[in-house]
Write a structure and sequence with these properties.
The protein is of the alpha+beta class and 851 residues long. The longest helix is centred in the N-terminal third of the chain and has 28 residues, at 144-171.
């Protein structure tokens, strides 16, 4: 008899959390994300559609853009499980997330499972008992407008990627990809790099003065900087034109060089410094709004060093375990419940004086924000403690939760108040300025300072006290220093600043930003140096092509308008079909399809695959070209490999000349191999120096190559050493214990020996070219310190998994401790003590790894 209520959510963790709040009459299962989607490969396309011209797109562009949805093979068994559960259900509740993606997942569940019982949609922004009960008391139907908006976005992204990417493969090189938001994000990085390439530095000088009051009672020094000479402002960085390094035409300033700065210093020392003016101004600073997705990603990047992906992964765990509200939001709204909880915490933790008379209400500044959503905050009517979070989810989670907790509480605290102090000191021809700051009432700064890990320490840093001097008072000049300054090129984007810029321009939505950043990095359109995102030469060439041939698709405003259009569709104010027709077929040749067709005919690979470097006296026109095996430098006659990790703004003509000159000389021959008679060359490639045996013949096999051993410089390599390197892998002899041969080699992770299935890394004092049979035998007889599962030591047994009944244990692995149920391994965060990991935390780690 069907008497169960079936509740379907996205993830096993969310299902397990909801189970705590619902009784035995409810069966809670997870869909594990989308159960169907557009086909991702030709193998997923049903046989009856394979011959259709539109099949590779998965969208029938000739028949009202009808989407071809398929259940991938990996999901078929799970769909059967959900259908079996329907047999015992009297009603189905779809409790997927409250955004467009969640609405789409619910719609696909109904379309695939085809339930014959009533279907209701549950919507909540936090996983608490109160929120679940409220959702059950007021269910709704699936919002078809939200579904259409999500489907439109999915189709637009599919058409963009599947039409433009193949064009990049044909005209440039395989493996490239284009995307509606991805390509615009790459353009941001490329434009910033172009600014850096065009940048010309400027040098200017100034003075730094250190003064003291003659009155011993007025303790303290006055650190100041030169601002004016003879009443005229001194040039600073903003006064220079970055394109030529010269003063801007409208800059009415004094430019000091080393000589004039030194002369001015002597003038200052020869005169008596006096306080020209003292200005005091009160200030009031208001707290920042509670977190939305973008600000959480930016702040976690600044304070915790988390990537956008890492932030969202941890936030997802916090949400699904009931610790925070939904983490994909652009609304700064706080519910009445949240306001009450935060204000109670302020009063209890910091005192009545830190609590404003009325709750603070924040107006969302982001265009098209979904005001029905809430900001990211601790869940429930009373916020969980840091200890609760750490016990359940570990160190990463508690760090992020603490950030969210403090930001939420601080948003409901009183303003910080204090005084700004400005001193102007005059001596001879020069005027110096010093700034100070006092904090009379810290207000919200007691709980949270943006960009700071320690509010108390930050409060101390923010206060800059100055001696209580008065106008006209004569001072002592303790030191006057001439200082040199150089203008700096525009800073590259970090993950946080790029997300901030995408948000500012209205490009993408909270659910997409982390994925966009991850895609840009994983597709080798950018790499990281520290926290900076550096575009590759491939990115430079791709953006050049897209700007020339798909300019409006790469336009920032066009991309942002799509979000407006999707929001209009989600509100029922616009038609999906009309938008898709305009986007794909367009008018006046501006649609995606005619642009791709025109590009097929007009794009010349010889032109689009080059990124100009400049024209040198020695080598003529030099460019970086995008080749089959990656970028390389050429002047049309000679070519040179690019060093790995070189930034486009670092590839100037001097560097290019150096590389091309070395390449023109040809590889250095160390001599001939004593056995084959072939020449042995010492070369430098993309991944560093190596030796090569023989020449590459057209149509012939690739010559044998061997990288230099770690710690070996090219200058240390002679013919004898090169011969030994090329002998690798070499057989040392037979292992006495089993008679099998022992082979020594230099591998991806360093030098090692191998005998049958047994391997051992070589210690630093041994190399694969000189390790002896005796040494190898001794190493093989020692217990392996590797990562084989059989070798992993069990540190602790935690108990049974509630669903699978599998025993969960903590083990030590090559890359640190991990939890496992025998099938799924999940690393324990590096800051967590393995001995303190609980069964609940281990289950969450395993399920996050599974997802």
């Amino acid at each position: 008899m069907a008497d169960k209520s079936l509740v379907i959510v996205e993830s096993p963790t969310k299902a397990r959390t909801i189970t705590k709040f619902l009784g035995k009459d409810f069966n809670i299962l997870a869909s594990n994300g989308h159960i169907r989607d557009l086909p991702n490969s030709a193998a997923e396309i049903p046989t009856k559609f394979k011959k259709e011209a539109w099949a590779r797109l998965g969208v029938n562009v000739e028949e009202d853009f009808e989407a071809l949805y398929v259940v991938p093979s990996s999901k078929k068994q799970h769909v059967k499980t959900l259908k079996d559960a329907l047999k015992d259900a009297s009603i189905v509740y779809l409790a997927t997330d409250e955004d467009r993606e969640g609405e789409s997942i619910s719609w696909h569940l109904v379309e695939t499972l085809k339930p014959k019982v009533p279907v209701k949609r549950l919507v909540f922004h936090e996983i608490t008992k109160e929120a679940i009960e409220q959702a059950l008391s007021s269910p709704r139907s699936i919002d078809e407008n939200l579904v259409r908006a999500q489907e439109t976005r999915r189709i637009v992204d599919r058409l963009y990627g599947y039409e433009v990417s193949p064009l990049l493969w044909k005209k440039m090189t395989s493996g490239l990809s284009a995307g509606r938001v991805q390509s615009v994000a790459i353009r941001l990085l490329v434009e910033r790099e172009r600014e850096r390439i065009a940048f010309h530095k400027a040098v200017y000088w100034g003075l730094k003065g250190l003064f003291e009051s003659k009155d011993a009672k007025k303790a303290g020094t006055i650190e100041s900087l030169l601002t004016h000479v003879d009443g005229k402002r001194v040039a600073i960085g903003k006064d220079f034109d970055a394109s030529n390094g010269k003063l801007a035409k409208d800059a009415d300033v004094v430019l000091l060089n080393e000589k004039t700065a030194s002369e001015l210093r002597e003038n200052v020392l020869a005169n008596e410094p006096k306080v020209k003016s003292v200005e005091e101004k009160p200030y009031t600073t208001k707290p920042s709004a509670p977190f939305v997705t973008s600000t959480l990603q930016q702040e976690a990047n600044r304070k915790l060093g988390f990537s956008a992906k890492r932030t969202m992964t941890v936030a997802q765990q916090l949400y699904e375990n009931g610790f925070i509200t939904y983490m994909r939001t652009d609304s700064t709204t706080l519910s009445t419940q949240a306001l009450s909880a935060a204000r109670s915490l302020v009063k209890d933790t910091y005192g009545e004086s830190y609590l404003p008379k009325e709750p603070r209400i924040y107006k969302t500044k982001v265009k098209n924000a979904q005001e029905a959503h809430e900001a990211i905050r601790p869940a429930g009517e009373s916020f969980k403690t840091f200890g609760d979070v750490k016990k359940a989810l570990g160190q990463d989670a508690v760090k992020l939760y603490e950030l969210i907790w403090k930001r939420t509480v601080a948003s409901q605290m009183a303003d910080a108040k204090g005084t700004y102090i400005t001193l102007n000191v005059e001596s001879g021809r020069a005027t110096f300025r010093a700034s100070g700051k006092t904090i009379e009432f810290p207000g919200f700064l007691r709980a949270y300072v943006e960009g700071s890990d320690d509010p108390d320490a930050e409060l101390a840093d923010q206060e800059r006290s100055l001696p209580k001097v008065v106008e006209g008072e004569v001072l002592d000049a303790k030191s006057i220093e001439a200082t040199e300054h150089t203008t700096q090129p525009p800073a590259r984007y970090t993950e946080g600043s790029m997300i901030k810029e995408l948000e500012r321009r209205g490009i993408g939505r909270p659910s997409t930003w982390a994925t966009v950043v991850e895609t840009v990095l994983s597709r080798d359109y950018a790499f990281k140096r520290g926290s900076a995102l550096i575009p590759t030469f491939t990115a430079m060439a791709v953006v050049n092509l897209l700007e020339d041939h798909f300019s409006h698709l790469l336009d920032y405003e066009f991309t942002a308008r799509l979000e407006d259009d999707l929001d209009a569709i989600s509100r029922g104010e616009a038609e999906s079909l009309e938008y898709l027709k305009t986007f794909y077929f367009g008018g006046n040749g501006a649609g995606l399809k005619p642009l791709v067709t025109k590009g097929e005919e007009s794009i010349d690979p010889r032109e689009v695959c080059g990124v100009p470097v400049g024209e040198s006296d020695e080598h003529g026109k030099v460019e970086v070209r995008i080749g089959r095996y990656g970028p390389f430098l050429t002047n049309g006659e000679n070519r040179a490999a690019l060093p790995d990790g070189v930034a486009p703004d670092e590839m100037n003509l001097d560097k290019a000349d150096e590389l091309l000159t070395a390449a023109a000389k040809g590889p250095e021959s160390l001599g001939k191999h004593p056995e084959t008679g072939q020449p042995i060359y010492l070369k430098t490639g993309r991944y560093g120096p190596y030796v090569q045996l023989g020449d590459q013949e057209e149509g012939g096999d690739k010559p044998k190559m061997a990288s230099l051993l770690k710690g070996t410089s090219p200058g240390d390599v002679d013919l004898a050493h090169a011969v030994k390197l090329l002998s690798l892998p070499r057989t040392i002899g037979n292992f006495p214990d089993n008679g099998e041969p022992i082979v020594a080699a230099n591998g991806r992770y360093g030098p090692y020996i191998k005998c049958g299935s047994e391997t051992r890394s070589l210690p630093e004092e041994m190399t694969p070219i000189d390790v002896s049979l005796e040494q190898a035998t001794e190493l093989l007889r020692q217990p392996k310190k590797g990562r084989r599962r059989a070798q992993a030591k069990v540190l602790k047994e935690l108990g049974k998994h509630p669903s699978s009944d599998a025993t969960i244990v903590i083990k030590s692995g090559q890359y640190g401790p991990y939890v496992t149920d025998g099938e799924i391994n999940a690393s324990i965060p590096k800051n967590d003590d393995p001995q303190e990991v609980t069964l609940e935390q281990a289950i969450n780690l395993i399920e996050a790894r599974l997802a």
